[in-house]
Write a structure and sequence with these properties.
With 143 residues, the protein is an all-alpha fold. The protein has a domain of 79 residues. Helix content is 78%, strand content 0%. The longest helix is centred in the first third of the chain and has 44 residues.
Length: 143
Amino acid sequence: MKSLEELFEETESDLKLIEDDLVRESLRTPYLYDKYLKEYTLAGLELKRLENDYNELFMNKTEYYLGKSSKEVYDEKPFDRVVIRSELPTYLDADSELRVLNEMREYASARKDFLSRTLTGITNRQWNIKNAIEWNKFLNGAV
């Protein structure tokens, strides 16, 4: 999947209107919509996967910090402290594995949001092209 930075560059060039060839630009709109709809769909699936992974890890970490995990888990990664429920959010917020997964989830969410706005921009692009064609007709006395 493309990074946000790659998408920024790509949309900047893809959505630029060439005023000298508005008809061609109008014909490109469905292609652009399809291209970014595919990216948006993949971004949504990636976000859902990361949310599921985060929720699973969150549950496992909650059990771990509350002392409810299996003996094998503590053999692998010892934790010799008793955490009470009121302290649990502090431990979960500070957990490096959860933070990394949460950052990935936030990035995927920002990517999906950007693609959603890009699709809206592509839809609006068609109206901008139509208005530019009408304006050119008006300037040339065709209307």
